[in-house]
Design brief:
With about 210 residues, this protein is an alpha/beta fold. The protein has a single domain, classed as Rossmann fold (3-Layer(aba) Sandwich). It has eight helices and five strands. A five-stranded parallel beta sheet has the order 2-3-1-4-5, with helices on both faces. It is globular, with a radius of gyration of 16 Å.
């Protein structure tokens, strides 16, 4: 029996790392074998590509270069980690997946989403998460939280309008595939978000238990 693939999405500062720990505990409490991973990254090669994408460079990175790097990392991640784990019956929890590409490179960078769709079809065909949990809050709140954490990576240094476009893209993605997306209000306090998350997990997967 194949496992389930869950992705978590959201802007910087929405608390994905904290809430991922809540999901991990829920999986453990329900006796589910899983792996936790992230994008870009998740494998040795993909993590090296992640560094190229996020670190600061003297040379300006072209938006299409960034897009191609993200999909190169995703190809490696899916074929060497995610698909084998699912085939073995494990669940996979990934911090970001293709929705983030539509949000950041499509919305934020304003690249033509038809180009993203072409790459998605080339790399993934119809492969996508069983469930995507979108932690939503306004860009200003998220950025304020992210900046309080410390140094920002190359993408986190973008201006507020960039992240406003990212959030709008996430909204459009969620509306286009409502059966896959679970939207949670990440502007609330951590405990409330965690409680909402657990309730959503129980509702989504109770029929599978």
């Amino acid at each position: 029996m194949n496992g389930k693939f869950i992705s978590i999405e959201g802007l910087e500062g929405v608390g994905k790392t904290t809430q991922a720990q809540v999901i991990c505990k829920w999986l453990e409490d329900n006796g589910i074998d899983y792996i936790r991973t992230r994008e870009p990254g998740g494998t040795e090669i993909a993590e090296s590509i992640r560094e190229l994408v996020l670190e600061h460079h003297k040379e300006k990175m072209d938006s299409k270069t960034e897009l191609l790097l993200v999909f190169a990392a995703r190809q490696q991640h899916v074929e060497t980690l995610i698909k084998p784990a699912l085939a073995s019956g494990k669940w996979v929890l990934s911090d970001r997946f293709t929705d983030a590409t539509y949000a950041y490179q499509g919305g934020g960078r304003e690249l033509d989403t038809s180009l993203i769709a072409e790459l998605e079809q080339l790399i993934l065909k119809d492969f996508q998460p069983h469930t995507t949990i979108w932690f939503d809050c306004d860009a200003q709140t998220g950025l304020s939280r992210a900046r309080a954490r410390g140094a920002l990576d190359r993408i986190e240094l973008e201006d507020i309008s960039f992240f406003d476009r990212c959030r709008k893209s996430y909204l459009n993605r969620s509306l286009s595939d409502p059966s896959r997306f679970i939207k949670l209000d990440a502007a609330q306090d951590i405990k409330t978000v965690s409680d909402d998350l657990i309730a959503a997990l129980n509702k989504r997967f109770k029929s599978d238990s």
